[in-house]
Automatic annotation (TrEMBL):
Transmembrane segments: none annotated. GO terms for molecular function: hydrolase activity, acting on carbon-nitrogen (but not peptide) bonds, in linear amides. Keywords: Hydrolase. InterPro entries: Aliph_Amidase/BUP, C-N_Hydrolase, C-N_Hydrolase_sf. The keyword Hydrolase applies. This is N-carbamoyl-D-amino-acid hydrolase. It comes from Candidatus Dactylopiibacterium carminicum. Pfam families: CN_hydrolase (PF00795).
């Protein structure tokens, strides 16, 4: 039997600082209409899709920073997207900067939501792996201040939706095997990941030529090693003078690229994805219950970073008596 899901990538080209939310939402709506016309039931948009990627700047003023965040979802500018989703019966994943009130305090998250075909928010994810740095670093061509502007999330949940088990991640999360495995251990069949990835990575410029390769490699590995579909969608192109990769792609549980975008602009590509295609991987090669050995993995949870002895040799905690 097959559980087909027609999934669209809603890749965005650049969003400049002067582009209003209304203008961006109009672009998102145009892509949703195109996806619907192509038979899509779900469209995946990028990370921080509603504004320019503001962590590239050091912003001192709180009001300036908060101008990039949403206090409500949907709000007045995003409601048209929800209304269109309801009218067309198309669900969506949307990344945005969330301002949330918790115990009387305003918290800032790099967030993604999952909205079903009745325009109901059925899931919310807050980015766990925040890359970059927290203080201004003038040596960089541009900043990457996610550690300054966002509080990290602490969980990878999965949801029963669109006929299967689906989960969410954001950008840098896709580089970490743990992201997929935590969801894989919950039976995930589709992981949606929006991203903003500059071509130039200041700490390792020698990798700039590999940015598209690393993007796809990370998602192919995550898909195959957990028997899940992975959909990665970019906000791409030259945004406020910074060039970001495209490379949006739909990866099958086999690790094969099922479909990909070929521009760095607004682009819609739809693929028919059989969620039942996950089963053969989950039941054989990656039958976790049959093959995994958690008793050998405790270092993965216990240690944050590499631990070496003073002479640089590998360091092991003393065996428990
Ligand atoms: N962007 C980048 C990403 O992980 C980055 C940051 C680029 C990290 C290149 C390492 C190498 O794709 C976000 N927004 O996480």
């Amino acid at each position: 039997m097959s559980r087909y899901l027609n999934i669209a990538m809603g890749q965005l080209g650049p969003v400049q600082r002067s582009d209003s939310r209304r203008q961006v939402v109009a672009r998102l709506c145009d892509m949703m209409r195109e996806a619907h016309a192509l038979g899509a039931q779900l469209i995946v948009y990028p990370e921080l899709a509603l504004t320019t990627f503001f962590p590239r700047w050091f912003l001192a003023d709180d009001a300036d920073i908060d101008s990039f965040f949403e206090r409500e979802m949907p709000g007045p500018e995003t409601r048209p997207l929800f209304e269109l989703a309801h009218a067309l019966g198309v669900g969506f994943y949307l990344g945005y900067a969330e301002l949330a009130q918790e115990q009387g305090r305003w918290m800032r998250y790099n967030t993604a939501i999952l909205v079903d075909q009745h325009a109901k928010i059925v899931g919310r994810y807050r980015k766990v792996h925040l890359p970059g740095h927290a203080e201004h670093e003038p040596w960089r061509r541009f900043q990457h201040l996610e550690k300054r502007y966002f509080t990290p999330g602490s969980r990878f949940d999965v949801y029963q939706a669109f006929g299967g088990i689906v989960g969410m991640a954001l950008c840098n999360d896709r580089r970490w095997a743990e992201t997929y495995r935590v969801m894989g251990l919950q039976g995930v069949e589709l992981v949606m990941i929006g991203y903003n990835t500059p071509v130039h990575n200041a700490p390792a410029p020698q990798h700039d030529d590999l940015s598209l390769f690393h993007n796809q490699l990370s998602m192919q590995a995550g898909a195959y090693q957990n028997g899940t579909w992975v959909v990665g969608v970019a906000k791409a192109g030259l945004e406020e003078g910074v060039d970001s990769i495209g490379g949006s792609c739909i990866i099958a549980p086999s690790g094969e690229v099922r479909a990909c975008c070929i521009t760095k602009d607004d682009e819609v590509v739809v693929a028919r994805c059989d969620l039942d295609f996950c089963a053969i991987y989950k039941q054989t090669t990656f039958n976790f219950d049959r093959h995994r050995r958690p008793e050998a993995y405790d270092m993965i949870v216990r240690r944050k970073g590499v631990a070496l002895a003073a002479d640089g040799s590998p360091w092991h905690e003393p065996e428990e008596a």
